[in-house]
MFS transporter (Ferirhizobium litorale), 443 residues
Amino acid sequence: MKEARSPNLPGRTECAAYALPALPLAALALPLYVIVPTFYSDVVGLPLAAVGVVLLAIRVFDAFADPLFGWLADRFSSRLGRRRGFFLLSLPLTAASAFMLFWPPGDAGLGYLGFWGALVSVGYTWTVLPYTAWGAELSDDYKRRSVIAAWRESATLVGTLLAIGLPFAIGLQTHDGVNGLAVVAVLVAVCLPLAGMVAALAVPEPIDRSTRNLRFSESLGFIGRNDAFLRLIVAFLLNGLANAIPATLFLYFVSDRLGSPELRGPFLFLYFLSAIAGVPLATLSARRLGKHRAWCLAMVLACLVFSLAGFLDHGDLYAFGAICIVTGILLGFDLVLPPAIQADVIDNDTAASGAQRSGFYFGAWSLATKLSLAGAVGMVFPLLSMVGFEPGDAANGTSALGALAILYAWLPILPKAVAIGLMWNFPIGEVEQQELRRRIADG
């Protein structure tokens, strides 16, 4: 394995090797949140309400696990390195539990779903936090951090496309024998450990810049005093909420507002496929404009383009396809730039606290992601109920379908606009980040 170092410019081979595990991790994440609930209720035959309760309990537990695993990721030590070592230890649990959850036996019940679902949740959190912290520490260079994030998020998008395409192409009608979700189970179980080993062998362990260890309570205190991080995470949470609202309503909008339920899968695939094209554009824009300004301009354009969806009605499929392409490209900016800015914000903490705590910061980051998803569900479903919208009901009137369009296209503009305001004059750019690195190097 490569010796620990902190390169300013990791090459393409190292970036590609680091990105590999993101593909099976994405193939795990999307089915966990999108396909598993429907599969266990419709195919396995478990009561829908009970499945919902079990998965909700798992997600609440998982949210509390994020900061704990982030803290542990920063305190772990082994001859393999704290990032690579903690990451490698998690892979057997994550791969095996995903296989068991995605390919259940014929007599699987709620206990089976709860047990393996909880282990997948723990394993995924354990794997992702040291993995993202590893990437944040791979380079000290302001611009190169965007490149590293771009490699990882490109692999994430490929894994997402596989997770969308395989289950529906192969079929999910039965869990006797091989089905689409079982193929994803094999993909994750085989590819995640292999990709993790390749990354650990090819990618260096960054030097730990910590000069002291902090107790859990001290870690919280320094986070609370990191104004740049608080500003970033609020903007990230609001932008995540803005993205989660249409994601929650996407299936209903295509089925009921546009009247084309058969195109839900193709439109979703088109959206994520377009995001792959957005990744290099995000990197180029960040290099020329700075990361926070490039992200802000992408959010402004997303608001303008996505607002047009509110005017679409039954049969406006080409227009919606165009919106999917443009907003998908802009999704690439949302995926690449915020975590690259997060790496700079962690420098701010390291310079102040003397402890390099990327794991703890990405634990808070993961928690914000889950809160935005939960907030979207908690907001839009009651509002839809208030206006009398019923999914798949041909009796939905003009007012109900109009309310669906407003919630889908225009409600997300409000939180996104606040996020733009928070990030436009963000206090850490390239010059400020270089000064932070000098302070850290001087100890």
Remarks:
- The two ends are 28 Å apart (CA to CA).
- Residues 350 and 356 are 5 Å apart (CA to CA).
- The mean pLDDT is 87.
- Residues 1-208 form a domain with the Growth Hormone; Chain: A; fold (CATH 1.20.1250.20).
